[in-house]
Amino acid sequence: MHTAASLPRLVDSHAHLDAPDFDPDREEAVRRAFGAGVVAILCPADLTQPQSLPTIRSLAQAFPTILAAAGVHAHQAKDMAEGHLAALRDLAARGEIRAVGEIGLDYHYDLSPRERQREVLRGQLRAARELGLPAILHSRLSGPDVVDAVDGEGFTCGGILHCFTESWEMARKMLDRGFFISFSGILTFPKAREMREVAGKVPLERLLVETDSPYLAPVPFRGAVKRNEPAFVVETARVLAGIRGLPFPDLAEATTRNFAALFPFEKTPLQC
Ligand SMILES: [Zn+2]
Ligand SMILES: [Zn+2]
Fold first, then answer.
1. Dist. CA 65 → ligand 1 center (Å)
2. pLDDT at 156
3. 229: CA distance to ligand 2 center in Å?
4. Which among 78, 122, 131, 231 could bridge 36 via Cys, Cβ 3.0 to 4.6 Å?
5. By mean pLDDT, which of 22-31, 67-76, 213-222, 248-257 is the weakest?
6. Centroid of chain to Cα 123
7. 114 CA distance to ligand 2 centroid (A)?
8. 150, pLDDT greater than 50
9. Who's near 97: CB < 8 A, 6+ residues apart?
10. How far is the CA of 90 from the centre of ligand 1 (A)?
11. Ligand 1 centre from 160 Cα, in Å?
12. 50 CA to middle of ligand 2, Å?
């Protein structure tokens, strides 16, 4: 039997553990992930949602390798106020957040007017640049405008393009701009052939894996469970190892090393 100490080490680079879906068993879900070999989890808080930041803050205080980020999501761009940028600066000054995010554009759901989404993204990239923090970017059917925003703000702090769903062209542009590319459970879906092709081309030293919990449970959990959780990142990493022709432990170690290069988390003791 494997113990957590002998399992390949993985990082879930993006999990919404603030979601109400985790209210019944948030800490147990974290412990299950640690038991499955996950050694760190990045949790983005949304500043427009009153419960989001306090929930993630208390998790980050309880578990030293749960890292917090904060920002206003593309979906909530219409609700962004000046106070949110001030909050971001305060959080950064107190060392509570490691990145600004998730921020970005979403032209699939279009839950905020696109013009407003672009303004809010640019304002937060500007703040991230001033604070010297990486960005956690979300982009859905909006690749060229995300690249324009990064270039327009002269943003060179890098970060993660999370839950990658776009073309190789977009991946290449973001790699050129210093970003890591993170793949979610979508990679395991039978239809995701094009995405698997892109995942085969991203340089190994820029690859990350994530769950985007509670959404997008990977195969074989897809359809079988109501909710995705960080422990399931193992399935996405296994598929990615297959695509790369690498033994699973090597792929796990590579993505964990990549994450640690961006967000050193190993200086603090691991809690399991
Ligand atoms: Zn996202
Ligand atoms: Zn997300």
1. 21
2. 97
3. 13
4. 231
5. 213-222
6. 20
7. 18
8. yes
9. 45, 68, 69, 70, 88, 91, 133
10. 23
11. 11
12. 17
Measured from the alpha carbon of residue 165, the closest ligand is 1
The first and second tokens of residue 120, run together, are 């809010």
pLDDT, residue 272, reads: 43
Distance from the CA of 163 to the center of ligand 1, in angstroms? Answer: 6
Residue 2 has pLDDT above 70, yes or no: no
Interval between CA 142 and ligand 1 midpoint (Å): 12
Ligand closest to the CA atom of residue 18: 2
Ligand nearest to the CA of 212: 2
Ligand nearest 210 Cα, by number? Answer: 2
CA distance 63 to 40: 9
